[in-house]
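Researcher: We're teaching a course module on how sequence relates to structure. For the next exercise, students receive a sequence and then see the predicted structure as tokens, so they can try to spot secondary structure elements on their own. Here is the exercise chain.
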Amino acid sequence: MLAVTLVGGCGDAGQTAPATSQAAVPARPGATGAPPAAGAVPESGEECPATGNARRFAKTRFALHAGLALGAFYRYIYKPLRSGGFNAGADKRKRTFVKAAVAGAFALHELKVAKRFATANPTLCKGVQAVSDSFSELTGKLRNGTATEADLEAGKDAFDALKQNAARSGYDFKEREITVPSTR
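Model: And here is the predicted structure for the students to work with:
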């Protein structure tokens, strides 16, 4: 149902947003005089858009993907680490590691998607880079087995800063318990 709503709400792929005027686009060295295509998203390292969304529903889609990443990180990485699920001799330790690895990969992917939507919106563009960098570093340390409590806290602090910035902009994250039906 959610997928149908998102696809239907996002409009037809053939429709494009109105192109911005060339005066609103900042000049870059080596760039041609042609304005960027409608819906073009700045690559990493490029400037944020000056006005308007470069992609349709950028804020909504950003909130969706960032929320999924935050939820996966918190539920499958942060909470088990805090409760000792990764310690030697912990009950179901291997399963906890597998879940954390999958959740880390999922969260990293969702952050990359959220970052693309954030760079399409001037309000969100500036605040996402720190979270993405912090989580990439944490995922690498978890993969190598060198992550410490301080690294985990840095990742959580980056997410908390993102949540606070979003709340100040009027986009509050609300944690909701979701029950998954079992086959038993």
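Model: If you want an answer key for the exercise: The longest helix spans residues 58-83. Residues 58-168 form a domain with the Four Helix Bundle (Hemerythrin (Met), subunit A) fold (CATH 1.20.120).
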